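Re: duplicated header lines in exported structure tokens

Our pipeline writes sequence and tokens for each protein into one text file. With two proteins the header for the second block appears twice in some exports. Here is an export where it did not happen, for reference. First protein block:
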Amino acid sequence: MKILILGGTTEARQLAGALDSRGDAEIILSLAGRTAAPRAQGVPTRIGGFGGADGLVRFIEAEKIGMLIDATHPYADQISLNADQAARETGVLFLALRRPPWMAVPGDTWTEVATVADAAATLGQHPARVFLALGRKDIAPFESAPHHAYLLRSVDPIDPPLTVPNAVYVTARGPFSEAGDRLLLQQHGIEFIVSKNSGGEASYGKIAAARALGIPVVMIQRPALPEAPSAATVGEALAWCDHALTVAPALRAAKH
């Protein structure tokens, strides 16, 4: 069976490698192309969008994809909507690999907001030093709050930069440890963190560091995603695929 994995996450890379090692499926891993030099994936990889749900349908049909797995970032809601629609139209086996969100624990000080614009407004009028733990596409709303000093960390340089008088840019690729993020926050005198609730371990260091340092976090809630067969971990996804790869050939044989 040909399996298309919509990726860009650690889990997508791990799942693709595990399925590829089985030898009973052909894996294609698709990346959106937002990072200039993505890390090696270890399986055949395509980069770039499909052209919406219709384009994804055409790709599935042209490549004779038998299984579609949405293992994109929890905030990549548009591609998840496209994947759900394409799976329904083509009838391919479909799984969403969705890591659980972080949950606040004693010592955390979170203010949960619905949007990035809400996060910018929540910072208030008193000038503060803010770590924007967000992607490049999400930072523009903070130009409406130029009285804050911002720290931004990204894989690729942010170009164009924010049109604010005080911003520091750090280029780095995760995962990030709690110790490393604690040092980063202390070096820059950070007073607030703005973060998405991405879940997983790769970027949890800043959340643990904020707890240890008593720094409040403005947490942007996840977007609503379509209901679909889902797995919370790579292990669960592999178990689902094991079942699907066993049952699907038998169903095909029965039909013939």
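Second protein block, exported in the same file:
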Amino acid sequence: MNIRETIENREEVTLNKHAVLSKNTRGRSVAEKEEDIRTCFMRDRDRIVHTKSFRRLKHKTQVFIRTSGDHYRTRLTHTLEVAQIARTIAKGIGLNDDLVDAIALGHDIGHVAFAHNGEEVLNELMPNGFKHNINSIRVLTRLEKNGAGLNLTEEVLDGILHHSGFDKNGKEAFTLEGQVVKYADKIAYVNHDIDDSIRAGLIVEEDLPSEYINILGHTNSDRINRLVHDIIYNTINNLESENIKVNLSEEVGYALTGLRSFMFKEVYKGNILRNEREKAKFVFEQVFMYYVKNQDKLPKFYRDIAEEEGIYQGVCDYIGGMSDDYCIHLFNELYVPKFVIY
């Protein structure tokens, strides 16, 4: 008995007609023989989870709150929360939750140390700029497996590439599953970053704009519940009327966008963490420029990239994969004097 074919047949019977069926994938850049148990999207999910890049997410910042507390989100726990929310939405609508899972687990794999602070530094330093979603594709296709890449399906790569941003005029993933992850990402980080910011004493519940929380709810769980319910039922209504897209209702979408803007103004780019952000950017830039000036100090894999694609790309690939702690460790090794007693 071929279990993969059984799973694929089950998808055909149970999923929404607008869902992506595993057997109808657009495929991989290099064709592979199918397995007898896992579908193509199940294989992609497993490949992502077993990468070194995925494991390093546990030591990369979500929001730059340097703390010894165990309960603050990291980039890895953020990724898991996105995957959980996205799977719930996908199941509610009737979409392919294996595809959603793979996209969600890989969506932030290209994030660098110190969250968006590191990304801003690279965007200023790199000749063609830097965006973490594009870097996620590079990590998965060019850097992992010692340069061989994971050979993921086109649907997974497209969903990862288009998960970022919240601009109505931005390009969307060509699958509904990819669109689900884009919303799940925002639902997750807006709410868990509020939770972490309150825990850290940066804001209090009363600071949250009432015009938005009166719509979404006054607790973290209430807000997520409202958002998940709304996007499921609103999208089902869209699909029944042949409006083939994933989105929130106008009222709830307005509230999420407003709450997200509040977080950008007060926390992500506000004065509260400005000094810590500047310290992080200073450390990141100094480590970057050290390797630009000392190409011979790069590991061989990245020296080879530097010779093929330029020194800035080689250095970007190397320090882009670093965790916060490792980047700080290198900065200390490179720039902090060591006291020696003779």
